[in-house]
Amino acid sequence: MGEMSIQQAMEQFLNQSKLKQRVRALEITDVWEELMGKTIAKYTDEIKLVNQQLIISTSVAPLKQELLFQKEKIRNRINELFNEHAVKEVIIK
Question: Which InterPro entries does this UniProt record tie to the protein (predicted)?
């Protein structure tokens, strides 16, 4: 077995475990305000990532409508940020 850095070992572990989706969801939550702005972040109730589906929950009807129009943009920005296809679909609830 060859030598690898701690970062490489962690990435390998995450890729082989079911934790990767949860870690990625936390990372998305951390950068959500930067990606979407303070107002949208303030009224976003929950962000989950399940089977490469990003589920965004909000109880504010106008925000739901705005997010529905931006689904493709959200997906593209997140995938670009993480340099991988982490999100295949965005679901607004």
Answer: DciA-like
pLDDT in tens, 25-63: 888 999 999 999 999 999 999 999 888 899 999 999 999
What pTM was computed for the model? 0.78
Secondary structure class of 1 (helix, strand, coil): coil
Q: How many beta carbons lie within 10 A of that of residue 63, not counting itself?
A: 19
User: So what CATH class is 6-92?
Assistant: alpha beta
The residue among 76, 43, 77 whose CA lies nearest residue 62 is: 43
Query: What is the distance between the alpha carbons of residues 57 and 78, in angstroms, rounded to a whole number?
Result: 17
Residue 24 contacts by C-beta under 8 Å, 6 or more apart in sequence?
49, 82, 86
Q: pLDDT class for 1, splitting at 50, 70, 90? A: low
Whether the CA torsion 47, 50, 52, 57 is positive or negative: it is negative
